[in-house]
Each structure stands twice: as C-alpha cells, then as structure tokens.
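[Solved] Which block belongs to which protein?

Original post:
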Amino acid sequence: MKSNFLILCLQDEDDFEQEMNRRQDEFLDLFSLYRQTGLSWIKEELLLKAYQLHLLDPEFRFHL
C-alpha cells in the first residue's frame, strides 16, 4: 500500500536544495520515461513525484 506521507529531516538550506534537486531529477526521469512509453503505472509514479515536489515547493505546478 502506498502512503501519501512525505517525511524529511533537513538540517539546513543546503540539505533542502539537494533534496529538491534529487526529486526534480527523479521527476524529469519519470516524465521522460512516461513520454516514451505512455504506461499508466509510470504516469501514477510521475503524479506522485509531482505531488511530492509540490509539498516541498507550493509554487511547483504540473499538468499532463
């Protein structure tokens, strides 16, 4: 079962920036894979990553 919780322990601004960069990279990798394959389970993962990015940065928006 998937959880909708996102728990992070960040020590400072550098930790936050590194975490954002890591999650953005994961998101972009999934987006590229989804555009190549169109598979529904990849779309679900992509939307989950987008939601997690939005939790970290409320300005982040994504629409398919």
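(Second protein starts here: sequence line, then its structure tokens.)
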Amino acid sequence: MTHLQQSTTRLPERLASKIATPWNFWKLAVANGWYLYAEQGQEALHLGAFTNLGNLAIQQLRFLEAPKTAVVMALNNEEFQVWLKAPEQHPAPRFVGQLGSHWSGYGVKPVTDSSTEVEVIYAADLRHEWMGIFSEYEAFEVIEQHYDRRRNRCLIC
C-alpha cells in the first residue's frame, strides 16, 4: 500500500461551525495532518491542508468571516459527493488543482502520480513564477502567505 493510499483510508468527520452558516464543513485526518473541506448546495471547496488543528480552525473562521480573503480551491462537486458517500472506496480530494484562474492564480499539481509532493506555479497575466516543490501542507502555507502579501499591497482592495 502506498503512502497516498494509506492517507485516504480514514473517514471524514463533520466539523461544527461557531457561526451560523449554510456551509457544511468536513475534516479529514491524513498522514501527518488534516484536510478541510466546505460544501453547500452544488459547490464543494478544499480549504487547505494543515499540520495542526489550530490552523485548520483559523482557516474555517477566516472563510466564514472574510471569504474573499481565504485561500480556497474549487472541487468537482459530483466527485466530492461520491467520495463523501463512500470514503472507503474512493480517494479523498487532495490539495491539488487550480486556485483562481490559469491567468491569475496558483496551480498545484503532484510531482508524480504517486508523490505526496506538489509543484506550485503562480500566474499573473502573462507572467508565470515557479514557487517550488512542497508537501501539500507547505504548499498551502506558501500560497496563503504569498496571496496575503499580494492582497495587502493591492491599492484597489
């Protein structure tokens, strides 16, 4: 059994919210950390990969209080629902994909099909910046810090 297969055998846990919201939150224990998901109606989101539950709780609160400032990755809702109904039979959605658009956002892709490491590339208009290879937890932290620095310098925001 590979490292990725071992990390997808745990069951998702419904996570309560301290703020009234139509969003449902799910926490999943994976190797060395947790994933946080949110779903509502036809929308499913990956809210990040975390090495401690304190940062997971902060991300959930940030998403609820200031959703435009939170790093989120859209998921295919149908695939998410299939996994949620039978997590023992389907792999959990990883923190891989596209945050924002291909023209302005972050691409996160596995280094290899069986790798737990991901490559992160930032795009802004016609410029692309290779940010590095990280664990999913490190990738989330790097993206969040980069995004916050850019947002705080924005004169329009």
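Accepted answer:
You had them paired correctly. Confirming on the second one: The helical segments are 3-7, 53-65, 77-85, 136-153.
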